Amino acid sequence: MAGQIRVIDHPVIQHKLTDMRRRDTRSDDFRRLLREISMLMAYEVMRDWPLDTVEIETPITRMRAPVLAGKEPCLVSILRAGAGILDGMLEVLPSARVGHIGLYREPTTLTAVEYYCKLPEDLAQREAVILDPMLATGHSAIAATSRVKESGAATVKFVCLLASPEGVAAFHEAHPDVPVFTAAVDSHLNSHGYIVPGLGDAGDRLFGTK
Ligand code: URA
């Protein structure tokens, strides 16, 4: 199966993303912008959520009205920068379950090393939506997706803010069945594994650690 990518290029998202990219955008604004973009992306990511109907009474009459069917999805945040997307997604999907996977980039090989994993026990009955703002080399995204699949998730989606062409290709190669949602695909990766033009280190910018 060829990998699927959905670039959510709504003008409001693109404007907010430009503000996030600016080097002089402060951490508080960066956090707010990522939260707002994530809320907007959540609508598109969940567009295929099936509907059921229930009988209700309006002030005028009875009707069958649509409601979301099945169990809520599980949002899986890749620590630490995934927390920035998680906040916005939870505003739109407040009853979603939440999982966390801790991965760090081994500085010389840039491979992903897992140091933490906590996922809901009933993941097999849920859709897992994996969150990480930057799909750069793809190593963390691939490792987290493998972990989520091993844990039995019914279906899996991957959501990021920015992707590199190299990261998208690597991810599609490893997980051709998992659709990728992003706000933009940038030019390339530099030799340090950063997305160009990108926005720098998403975790540091979110949490003001540099
Ligand atoms: N992680 C980041 O935070 N930024 C990049 O550009 C690449 C990986």
Any key phrases for this structure?
3-stranded parallel β-sheet; 33% helix; Rossmann fold; 6 helices; 30% strand; 210 residues; binds uracil; globular; single chain; 7-stranded mixed β-sheet; 14 strands; alpha/beta
Task: Report on the architecture of this protein.
This protein has about 210 residues and is α/β, with parallel strands linked by helices. The chain has one domain (about 5-205): Rossmann fold (3-Layer(aba) Sandwich). About 35% of the residues lie in helices and about 30% in strands. It has 6 helices and 14 strands. It is globular. The model has no long low-confidence stretch (mean pLDDT about 95).
Task: Give the N-to-C terminal Cα separation.
Answer: 41 Å
Helix content: 25-40%
Question: Spans of 5+ residues with little confidence (pLDDT < 50)?
Answer: none
- Rounded mean pLDDT is 95
Major sheet attributes: 7 strands, mixed
What is the SS-derived class?
alpha/beta
At the fold tier of CATH, the topology name is Rossmann fold
What coarse outline follows from CA principal-axis ratios?
globular
Specify the number of helices. Answer: 6
**Number of domains in the coordinates?**
1
CATH architecture group name: 3-Layer(aba) Sandwich
CATH class: Alpha Beta
Give the H and E element order: EHHEEEHEEEEHEEHEEEEH
Strand order of the largest sheet: 1-11-9-7-4-5-6
